[in-house]
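tool=predict chain=A
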Amino acid sequence: MTREEEIRTLEQRIADLRRRLPAHSVRPHMLQELEELEEALERLQAEAEGTPRAK
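tool=predict ok
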């Protein structure tokens, strides 16, 4: 899978997870998964741009 495909896949997974988030009483594992996906997406985008990711 190319980096661009991985980025698109992560974007789709993030969008799907956000759609499934309830308005109230969000489960901690859903928030953790969202954070992990967003961090992975940021890393891939930074790599694609050739810039190091700030921690």
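The mean pLDDT is 91. The chain has two helices and no strands.
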